[in-house]
Design brief:
about 400 residues; two-stranded antiparallel ribbon; about 15% strand; globular; 10 strands
Length: about 400
């Protein structure tokens, strides 16, 4: 093996291991960002169990987790295999981008690595997709620092490398990036609103009378609606917009020092409640703003809960994807994400694990669709267009 061949092997390994190192940092982002912790202080990673900072020689990407067998060297606490998988996934995707952009001549050992702006931009994009995916899986949120911050980075990347959005000039790259971000924002927002109109409520009928209440254990956090002993709903999850409302059919209901006997309907809004008696009556007999609530409790057998087809974070996530990759990628990503979501939901249903599929938010499917676009999207579009033209 010649020196040139050895150098090529080292370059391939370096591309992968740079990704693994970035994956180690992404683990920090995924853990700290949703908790409001700084990703810079402390600078070193720490054990989730004992909070001991991990020295550099015990924080080598991939190798440290394997050598320590997924345990903290200080307390022996278990460190999730997810840390290893994020590093591995990031390394593989960085390497795949490297291979995609590397020119290979007839002699397989003669490569021209594409170390340059395009690879750097795609590495940043892939990193944002991975961080957003795992934060969404863990917390069902997509932080603005990833979605909106990523969209800004995408516009700058399209100016630096117009080819990311299939353009050749810097000015057109920025314009197409902005237009594609707007398409992602507006297109998926329309899907969300239409989905809200069509599927925006979920009805629960209980087998027996259940007590329910509204409480706020921590004044720094939003209220919580509790049914029975286990079913709890956070206020911020229930009321995404001003028009959202929860309908609770009650046999008895108490607000502060007033008690109403049923059948009656209690409407919970983001900032007030209304009592209608008889159930479903057109005129409320009581309306109390949230600032005056002291005690809210009742007995129910039926509740209608507002729900979202997907969150607004998904809309901003697609905006970021559009900024990096262009309008065609936006359309492809929506289609691919929908197909992937449907297939995975069917697999979970067929295997009797439908609840697993219900726990996966839409963000990871969007990220998967965007990754597919990077490697196969343009080829798929070209193949599809050729088939349509042949039929025409």
């Amino acid at each position: 093996m010649t020196r040139f061949q050895i150098l090529n092997l080292l370059l391939h390994f370096l591309a992968f291991y740079i990704g693994a190192g970035i994956g180690s940092f992404l683990n920090v982002v995924i853990y700290r960002l949703p908790l409001g912790l700084s990703v810079n202080k402390p600078k070193r990673s720490f054990c989730p169990s004992c909070k001991t900072q991990i020295p550099m020689w015990q924080n080598i990407p991939l190798l440290s987790w394997l050598m320590l067998r997924g345990k903290c060297a200080s307390c022996g606490g278990k460190i999730s295999v997810r840390y290893f998988l994020v590093e591995l996934l990031t390394g593989l995707l960085f390497y795949a981008v490297f291979v995609k952009l590397t020119v290979i001549y007839p002699n397989p050992w003669v490569h021209i690595p594409a170390w340059g702006p395009e690879m750097l931009c795609l590495w940043v994009f892939v990193s944002l997709l991975i961080a957003g995916t795992f934060i969404d899986i863990d917390h069902f949120i997509l932080p603005h620092s990833i979605t909106i911050g990523g969209a800004v980075a995408g516009v700058l990347a399209a100016w630096w490398v117009p080819g990311l959005v299939e353009e050749v000039t810097h000015a057109r790259g920025v314009l197409v990036s902005l237009a594609s971000a707007a398409l992602g924002l507006g297109g998926l927002w329309l899907v969300v609103e239409l989905g809200k109109l069509a599927f925006g409520r979920k009805k629960h009928v209980f087998d027996k009378d259940l007590p329910w209440s509204v409480s706020q254990p921590d004044e720094t956090l939003p209220p919580v609606v509790t049914f029975g002993e286990e079913d709890k709903y956070d206020w911020s999850d229930l009321f995404v917009r001003a028009s959202d409302r929860m309908l609770i059919e009650c046999s008895t209901f108490t607000i502060n020092d007033r008690t109403f006997e049923g059948p009656l309907t209690v409407e919970l809004w983001e900032n007030k409640l209304k009592v209608r008696t008889p159930a479903g009556g057109s005129t409320p007999v009581a309306e109390v703003p949230i600032e005056e609530w002291k005690k809210v409790a009742g007995i129910t057998r039926q509740v209608v809960i507002p729900r979202e087809a997907m969150g607004f974070g998904d809309v901003l996530f697609l905006m970021m994807i559009g900024a990096f990759t262009g309008w065609q990628a936006v359309l492809f990503t929506i289609l691919a994400a929908s197909v992937l979501g449907t297939v995975i939901a069917m697999i979970h249903r067929l295997t009797g694990r439908a609840e697993w599929g219900a726990k996966i938010p839409f963000g990871p499917y969007l990220a998967a669709g965007a990754v597919l676009w990077i490697f196969y999207g343009p080829q798929f579009v070209g193949w599809y267009v050729s088939k349509v033209m042949m039929r025409g």
